[in-house]
Amino acid sequence: MKHNFGAGPGILPHEVLKQAAEAVVDLNGIGLSLLEISHRSAEFEAVLDEAVKLVKELLEVPEGYSVLFLQGGASTQFAMVPQNLLPSTGKAAYLDSGVWASKALKEAKYFGEVDVIATSKESNYTYIPKDYTIPTDAAYFHITSNNTIYGTQLHEFPKSPIPMVADMSSDIFSRKFNVADFGLIYAGAQKNMGPAGTTLVIVKDEILGKVDRKIPSMYNYQTQIEGGSMYNTPPVFAIYVSMLTLRWLKSKGGVEAIAQENKAKSKALYTEIDRNPLFKPVCAVEDRSDMNVCFVMENPEHEKPFLKLCDERGIVGVKGHRSVGGFRASIYNALPITSVHALIDVMQEFQEKNK
Amino acid sequence: MKHNFGAGPGILPHEVLKQAAEAVVDLNGIGLSLLEISHRSAEFEAVLDEAVKLVKELLEVPEGYSVLFLQGGASTQFAMVPQNLLPSTGKAAYLDSGVWASKALKEAKYFGEVDVIATSKESNYTYIPKDYTIPTDAAYFHITSNNTIYGTQLHEFPKSPIPMVADMSSDIFSRKFNVADFGLIYAGAQKNMGPAGTTLVIVKDEILGKVDRKIPSMYNYQTQIEGGSMYNTPPVFAIYVSMLTLRWLKSKGGVEAIAQENKAKSKALYTEIDRNPLFKPVCAVEDRSDMNVCFVMENPEHEKPFLKLCDERGIVGVKGHRSVGGFRASIYNALPITSVHALIDVMQEFQEKNK
Lengths: 355, 355
Known about the structure:
2 copies of one chain form a homodimer.
Chain A: E1 3-4, H1 14-25, H2 42-58, E2 65-70, H3 73-85, E3 91-96, H4 99-108, E4 113-119, E5 141-144, E6 146-147, E7 152-153, E8 164-167, E9 184-188, E10 199-204, H5 221-226, H6 236-251, H7 254-275, E11 279-281, E12 292-297, H8 303-312, E13 315-316, E14 327-330, H9 337-353
Parallel strand pairs in A: 1-13, 3-4, 3-5, 5-8, 8-9
Antiparallel strand pairs in A: 2-10, 6-7, 9-10, 11-12, 12-14
Helix pairs in contact in A: 1-6, 2-6, 3-4, 7-9
């Protein structure tokens, strides 16, 4: 077994993979593969129903919100959000906390005016901008809850006077938050929820239907709500594996329990980075992510041999994103704390060897 | 084992399912699941490259065409096609041969004028309209190559003076055709190519870039081409299983060989429908589909007991679409001729019992 610190598609629970593999051959003993049954079959309808129910239960989604499983990743949401929420003559407010945030706001410009109310671009996004005022005349306020590339995270969500929209692709289901504070939440599945191929959208029904623009069916949240995520054939396998992963999360004690584990994992790793003189952190301490732990080496010449040692010890996926360099250990829900300890051991072993 | 005549998501080859299940646990013995590796890893890049190569090889795609694996199903293509090809002041020509064709043209109306040059709606789409002229001043001409619901198929493609666009969701890879006759071809994977969750698009590069409209990145074929189907995280699993299915098709002798098998399967089944006095066909003989064989019963009271007998004999997915009624046997590439014989046996057994 490898220790998988990949940034995404990321690690999934071993028992989920085992069950998913079984369903690919024969789903629940019905004599057919999950891949070759109708999405209108009783079997798949039960899967989708359970997936939606688990999302509602685990995140305590209040009444008045719809839960959707769509396709196209968060990048499609970058367009669908303004297409559905931003009037052509209106404006939307964006917090620019990283490359994904800046990609999101770029897509919004196809539909209306964009007000970037704060950015940390000048520091290569090493912190979350904090001094800003959310304009009350904007249609919505968009944030990215966790910045995978830089390892920063919004630990407290702002109070927004207008509907708040969040890209939670890399930290959904990793910690508690209040869904009622948001107008819309979206997340690509492939970090904390399941495999690549489906995108979770949680939308407050009452914020829809306020733009004049005519929206093609597949891009329209209203059509997708009316179709119950089955306006057309949904990504059956990705939804099934997401359902299994959410079941696993529930069996672990839910979001509150996993949040404690996640805190323990990130604390252990940051403690080692701060302690070990060969390594140094890259982000503002108060904004350190509990999902993606970024660090570099004091001596850049140590990076290659350290990566080699990681590889020898079965630690994979720790190479940093090219725009930050160094290392990034993604410690999503499914990564056991034993893997974090394995990485810490290698950091200490490397220190010993390089005294 | 069941005989799976489901209309889609449909049957996949047994060995493909077995290999897919193995990869869900451990891909090629690398110690990681296919579901938890980076889409930028060497392993997945090899998968995507091979999938694209197999499409080009099996369909003999000429130079000047791009092959894409996207998300969102054919229904998303209903919008992307006009968004990318139909100028706001222009018009597009559509052949209305069924519900899917009519859904496609409905989406085109969001982007420009639509000219429905022929329809068989008045007869509940029991034939393919044939007497029409393709307007030379339209941006493109859209057809649906096979109509899953009604069991009709275009056996000869028209010669089009303007770029021809085809929804081939339910018969791609089932028979030979000349890609060079088309400007754009799209197909949801879940009938003849793989599981639900990815959509094949084959587009002639030179027809792009001719509309003034600004197109958000994910909806823009140009962005997807430049990103090599990886502008964002692709649907890794669906592409992998499609690749395996295309490998299987190649090992069977390719499109020409499977087309012969498909003809043998459909011929056997239509022969029995025509012969057996209890059953009757629903479509024009010359337009009968080799993929979806639709039939009803002379005595509607026989339908329930026949369905029950099918179920007892392990024959599943034969219930007709609600808009046609009766029965629909989908006999996609992966369905062995032995399954067709099993269905014919049940039809004859039912005839015996109801003499």
